[in-house]
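Example S7 (C-alpha coordinates).
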Protein backbone atom coordinates (compact mmCIF):
# COMPACT_ATOMS: atom_id res chain seq x y z
CA UNK A 1 0.00 0.00 0.00
CA UNK A 2 1.66 3.20 -1.18
CA UNK A 3 -0.72 5.94 -0.04
CA UNK A 4 -3.44 6.78 2.44
CA UNK A 5 -6.84 5.36 1.48
CA UNK A 6 -10.14 6.56 2.87
CA UNK A 7 -13.43 4.64 2.78
CA UNK A 8 -16.99 5.36 3.82
CA UNK A 9 -18.86 2.12 3.35
CA UNK A 10 -20.16 -1.08 4.91
CA UNK A 11 -17.47 -3.22 6.47
CA UNK A 12 -15.90 -5.63 3.98
CA UNK A 13 -15.67 -9.27 5.01
CA UNK A 14 -11.87 -9.16 5.32
CA UNK A 15 -12.19 -6.70 8.20
CA UNK A 16 -14.01 -9.25 10.35
CA UNK A 17 -10.71 -10.56 11.70
CA UNK A 18 -7.15 -10.11 10.47
CA UNK A 19 -3.89 -8.24 10.84
CA UNK A 20 -1.86 -6.47 8.16
CA UNK A 21 1.06 -4.11 7.73
CA UNK A 22 -1.02 -0.92 7.50
CA UNK A 23 -2.83 0.95 10.29
CA UNK A 24 -6.47 2.04 10.51
CA UNK A 25 -8.19 5.09 11.88
CA UNK A 26 -11.81 4.01 12.37
CA UNK A 27 -14.55 6.63 12.76
CA UNK A 28 -17.98 5.20 13.65
CA UNK A 29 -20.92 7.15 12.24
CA UNK A 30 -23.59 5.01 13.91
CA UNK A 31 -24.70 4.48 17.52
CA UNK A 32 -22.78 1.22 17.98
CA UNK A 33 -19.67 -0.46 16.57
CA UNK A 34 -17.83 -3.47 17.99
CA UNK A 35 -14.05 -3.54 17.70
CA UNK A 36 -11.66 -6.14 19.04
CA UNK A 37 -7.93 -5.30 19.05
CA UNK A 38 -5.76 -8.25 20.04
CA UNK A 39 -7.48 -9.52 23.24
CA UNK A 40 -9.48 -6.42 24.16
CA UNK A 41 -13.08 -5.63 23.20
CA UNK A 42 -14.35 -2.09 22.62
CA UNK A 43 -17.86 -0.78 21.97
CA UNK A 44 -17.68 2.52 20.09
CA UNK A 45 -20.24 5.11 19.07
CA UNK A 46 -20.11 8.30 17.01
CA UNK A 47 -18.31 10.08 19.88
CA UNK A 48 -15.30 7.77 19.52
CA UNK A 49 -12.39 7.25 17.15
CA UNK A 50 -10.17 4.15 17.15
CA UNK A 51 -6.58 3.72 16.03
CA UNK A 52 -5.51 0.18 15.06
CA UNK A 53 -1.72 -0.14 14.87
CA UNK A 54 0.03 -1.99 12.03
CA UNK A 55 0.26 -5.77 12.50
CA UNK A 56 -2.38 -5.78 15.26
CA UNK A 57 -5.06 -8.45 15.00
CA UNK A 58 -8.46 -6.77 14.92
CA UNK A 59 -12.09 -7.60 14.28
CA UNK A 60 -14.79 -5.09 13.39
CA UNK A 61 -18.57 -5.54 13.35
CA UNK A 62 -21.11 -2.85 12.47
CA UNK A 63 -24.39 -2.99 10.55
CA UNK A 64 -24.11 0.64 9.41
CA UNK A 65 -21.61 2.39 7.16
CA UNK A 66 -18.22 3.13 8.73
CA UNK A 67 -15.62 5.76 7.91
CA UNK A 68 -12.02 4.56 8.00
CA UNK A 69 -8.52 5.39 6.81
CA UNK A 70 -5.95 2.79 5.74
CA UNK A 71 -2.53 4.21 6.60
CA UNK A 72 0.74 2.80 5.18
CA UNK A 73 3.03 1.62 7.97
CA UNK A 74 5.77 4.07 6.99
CA UNK A 75 3.37 6.99 7.55
CA UNK A 76 2.85 6.11 11.22
CA UNK A 77 5.59 7.70 13.31
CA UNK A 78 7.38 4.89 15.16
CA UNK A 79 7.59 6.77 18.45
CA UNK A 80 3.79 7.28 18.41
CA UNK A 81 3.04 3.54 18.32
CA UNK A 82 3.45 2.79 22.05
CA UNK A 83 0.84 5.43 22.87
CA UNK A 84 -1.61 4.21 20.26
CA UNK A 85 -1.17 0.62 21.48
CA UNK A 86 -1.75 1.61 25.11
CA UNK A 87 -4.74 3.89 24.34
CA UNK A 88 -6.35 3.04 20.98
CA UNK A 89 -9.72 4.74 21.63
CA UNK A 90 -10.17 8.53 21.55
CA UNK A 91 -13.11 10.70 22.43
CA UNK A 92 -14.23 13.06 19.66
CA UNK A 93 -13.55 16.54 21.04
CA UNK A 94 -15.46 19.67 20.04
CA UNK A 95 -12.69 20.89 17.75
CA UNK A 96 -12.52 17.49 16.00
CA UNK A 97 -16.28 17.11 15.52
CA UNK A 98 -16.60 19.31 12.36
CA UNK A 99 -13.84 17.26 10.74
CA UNK A 100 -15.92 14.08 10.45
CA UNK A 101 -18.63 15.44 8.10
CA UNK A 102 -15.85 16.96 5.98
CA UNK A 103 -14.16 13.56 5.63
CA UNK A 104 -17.52 11.92 4.80
CA UNK A 105 -18.23 14.56 2.18
CA UNK A 106 -14.82 14.23 0.52
CA UNK A 107 -15.25 10.43 0.43
CA UNK A 108 -18.51 10.77 -1.50
CA UNK A 109 -17.14 13.44 -3.88
CA UNK A 110 -13.67 12.14 -4.72
CA UNK A 111 -12.10 9.21 -2.89
CA UNK A 112 -8.67 10.15 -4.32
CA UNK A 113 -8.86 13.80 -3.31
CA UNK A 114 -5.79 15.51 -1.85
CA UNK A 115 -8.19 17.07 0.64
CA UNK A 116 -8.63 13.67 2.29
CA UNK A 117 -4.87 13.39 2.77
CA UNK A 118 -4.73 16.83 4.44
CA UNK A 119 -7.73 15.99 6.62
CA UNK A 120 -5.97 12.79 7.66
CA UNK A 121 -2.79 14.68 8.65
CA UNK A 122 -4.83 17.08 10.75
CA UNK A 123 -6.77 14.26 12.44
CA UNK A 124 -3.59 12.25 13.06
CA UNK A 125 -1.85 15.24 14.67
CA UNK A 126 -4.81 15.80 17.01
CA UNK A 127 -4.94 12.13 18.02
CA UNK A 128 -1.22 12.16 18.77
CA UNK A 129 -1.40 15.42 20.73
CA UNK A 130 -4.30 14.15 22.81
CA UNK A 131 -2.65 10.82 23.53
CA UNK A 132 0.85 11.76 24.61
CA UNK A 133 1.83 12.26 28.26
CA UNK A 134 2.48 15.84 29.34
CA UNK A 135 6.23 15.31 29.67
CA UNK A 136 6.52 14.17 26.06
CA UNK A 137 4.42 17.08 24.84
CA UNK A 138 6.80 19.32 26.80
CA UNK A 139 9.86 17.72 25.16
CA UNK A 140 8.40 18.24 21.70
CA UNK A 141 7.52 21.88 22.43
CA UNK A 142 10.82 22.79 24.17
CA UNK A 143 13.29 20.49 22.37
CA UNK A 144 15.67 23.39 21.59
CA UNK A 145 16.06 24.26 25.28
CA UNK A 146 17.97 22.47 28.06
CA UNK A 147 15.52 19.99 29.65
CA UNK A 148 16.05 18.33 33.02
CA UNK A 149 14.66 14.91 33.86
CA UNK A 150 13.40 16.36 37.16
CA UNK A 151 11.28 18.89 35.22
CA UNK A 152 9.74 16.10 33.15
CA UNK A 153 9.11 13.96 36.23
CA UNK A 154 7.24 16.82 37.91
CA UNK A 155 4.94 17.14 34.91
CA UNK A 156 3.83 13.53 35.50
CA UNK A 157 3.77 13.93 39.31
CA UNK A 158 6.50 11.31 39.78
CA UNK A 159 9.89 11.34 41.47
CA UNK A 160 12.82 11.14 39.05
CA UNK A 161 13.66 7.46 39.64
CA UNK A 162 10.08 6.27 39.22
CA UNK A 163 9.57 8.55 36.21
CA UNK A 164 12.49 6.99 34.30
CA UNK A 165 11.12 3.49 34.92
CA UNK A 166 7.56 4.57 34.02
CA UNK A 167 8.80 6.28 30.86
CA UNK A 168 10.69 3.15 29.78
CA UNK A 169 7.55 1.05 30.28
CA UNK A 170 5.46 3.51 28.26
CA UNK A 171 7.85 4.06 25.34
CA UNK A 172 10.45 1.29 25.38
CA UNK A 173 13.27 3.81 25.81
CA UNK A 174 14.66 6.32 28.31
CA UNK A 175 13.64 10.01 28.50
CA UNK A 176 17.15 11.06 27.39
CA UNK A 177 17.11 8.82 24.31
CA UNK A 178 13.56 9.89 23.46
CA UNK A 179 14.54 13.56 23.68
CA UNK A 180 17.58 12.88 21.50
CA UNK A 181 15.29 11.29 18.88
CA UNK A 182 12.88 14.25 19.02
CA UNK A 183 15.80 16.61 18.36
CA UNK A 184 17.05 14.44 15.49
CA UNK A 185 13.57 14.36 13.93
CA UNK A 186 13.27 18.15 14.23
CA UNK A 187 16.72 18.57 12.67
CA UNK A 188 15.68 16.40 9.70
CA UNK A 189 12.61 18.58 9.14
CA UNK A 190 14.77 21.72 9.25
CA UNK A 191 17.27 20.24 6.78
CA UNK A 192 14.52 19.42 4.29
CA UNK A 193 12.34 22.52 4.69
CA UNK A 194 14.70 25.41 5.48
CA UNK A 195 17.88 27.00 4.18
CA UNK A 196 19.76 26.60 7.47
CA UNK A 197 23.23 25.08 7.28
CA UNK A 198 23.91 21.74 9.02
CA UNK A 199 26.25 23.61 11.38
CA UNK A 200 23.47 26.06 12.34
CA UNK A 201 20.97 23.28 12.93
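Recovered sequence:
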Amino acid sequence: MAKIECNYDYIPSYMTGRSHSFAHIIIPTSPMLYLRIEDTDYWLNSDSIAFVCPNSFHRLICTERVLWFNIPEEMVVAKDLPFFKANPIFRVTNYMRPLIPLIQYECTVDINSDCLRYLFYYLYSKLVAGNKPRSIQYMEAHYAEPIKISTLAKLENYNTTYYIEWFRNETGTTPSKYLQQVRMDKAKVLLVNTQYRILDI
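Notes on this example. Residues 14 and 59 are 9 Å apart (CA to CA).
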